[in-house]
Amino acid sequence: MDLDLRGVALGFAGAALVLAALVWFVGVGDLAAAASALDRSYLVGIAALAVCWLTAWGQSLRTVLSALDIPVSRSRAVALYASAAFANNVTPFGQAGGEPFSALLISRSTDSEYESGLAAIASVDALNFVPSIALALVGLLYYAVSFTLHGRLVNVIALVVGLAVVIPASGYFLWRSRAGLIPRIASVLGTVLGAVGRVIPRVTPPDEEALKKRLNAFVKNIERVGEDRTTLFLALGFSALGWMCMMSALWVTLHALGYGVAPWVVMIAVPVGGIAGVTPLPGGLGGVEFALVLLLVPITGVSTAAATTAALVYRGATYWLPTAVGGLSVAWLQGVEDRSVER
């Protein structure tokens, strides 16, 4: 199971430039002064909240896998989701870039079909969208009722409402049209993969019929998850718990810097800031930090340096820590797989 190391390296180089630009814009001296106010006794709690988030979303993945008749233990489910987080964090475009690798890891680790692994991780990612938008809308509604909206937050409201309408509507349309879309997608993929096979030696791409079978298998697995209401509600519950852990991590980070903020602040900042994860940077590194600063300054009144410090500490817990844990999880799962093959 290999990642495109060249693409990963280029992505991190781009992220480093974005972070360097953020630090330069804020000012190294101001950033150091803001960081000196951080109460480091809170760092363990912030990290613990990040682990709770990974654990909750790992159980969401376990719930979905169970609906597909793929039993995994609670600890392995957490390791699998941490591995998926690692893949998302080192590839561009967030989940879109890491899902193929995550699906392959899940299928090999659970001895299941690739299409089942892809359906499971895709279902979890789709379900995670629901609580994030719901919590962001609640936070924005409270702010709109209680305070005067800044121009920037008007744009944020428009963005969140647009996503809440456009994404479900698009998903519904695509789902209703799935029978007709599968042959078209298979045809396009067949053409693209055929061209790749002619360029890269010793690569034999699947033909169009094989692609249709795989796509149909993927869709059937999605249908099985969607038809199990118990699975959906339980997975959504774990997803919402994970979001609340991430929001709490940012809330505690701001508190550690001496800024007591209302819960609705992080209800807006965390989901909306996470949208920057779809940028062509590994895990949105750099983009998410910028987005958090742009959101925190107007809705909290904190200085740009303090908001940047909060964003960097928060991302240390919710980006760098999961990346490290996920990398170890990938190595552990790969080692388990290799030992099982040897036997």
Q: What are the salient characteristics of this protein?
A:
343 residues
What does this structure look like?
This protein is an all-alpha fold. Helix content is 83%, strand content 0%. The protein has 13 helices and no strands. The longest helix is centred in the last third of the chain and has 39 residues, at 304-342. The chain is globular. 43% of the residues are buried.
Low-pLDDT sequence parts: none
Instruction: Indicate the mean pLDDT.
Output: 84
Instruction: Report on the biggest sheet.
Output: none
The H/E string reads HHHHHHHHHHHHH
Structural class: mainly alpha
Q: Which percent range describes the beta-strand content? A: under 5%
Computed Rg: 21 Å
Distance between the termini: 20 Å
In which range does the helix fraction lie?
over 70%
Global morphology = globular
Instruction: Please provide the count of β strands.
Output: 0
Q: Please, how many helices? A: 13
